[in-house]
Amino acid sequence: MELRSVDELMELLYACRGAWDTPDRTGDPVDLHDHALQTAALLRRSHPSDKELQVAGLVHDIGYLLRPGDEARHADHAAHAIRPLLGHRVARLVRLHVPAKRYLAATDPWHGLSPQSTFTLQLQGGAMTPAEARAFECDPMAEDAVTLRQADDAAKVPGVNAGIMEDWRPVLELVTAAQR
């Protein structure tokens, strides 16, 4: 599936309310809707001028809705769906948020993962080898991908008010317009 309009993307983002990263709700303690809003809000605070990074945070986990049960490839599914609409950089950051988790698992032993992220890390290839980590560091988007990942890992707090989804529509429209 490829998303062709902000309206289609907004429908998918609204569908994240009550949807979880695992079908039986044993995963992270917030639904995908709240997780998306929290991730984007954290990135807005830390990188207020980087709208593409913020949007990547908002949409990074929509692959769970697109292909339920495919935890290992959820980032690839999301990146494929949003690339025509949000462009190369947003899609690449979304795709890289899983390798960034593998990188942090290899290079930062104090980087905490939720129990669900620890479980899916194994499905996604486990911690990077030293050679994989060096190759990842050479990617021009590695630093931004790590920033996205750190926000992703922090954005799993029940009860946090991170705003409403509709507030992101103008940002999505701005990023989409820049791709045309």
TrEMBL record:
Name recorded for this polypeptide: HD domain-containing protein
UniProt domain HD: residue ranges: 34-102
SUPFAM superfamilies according to UniProt: HD-domain/PDEase-like
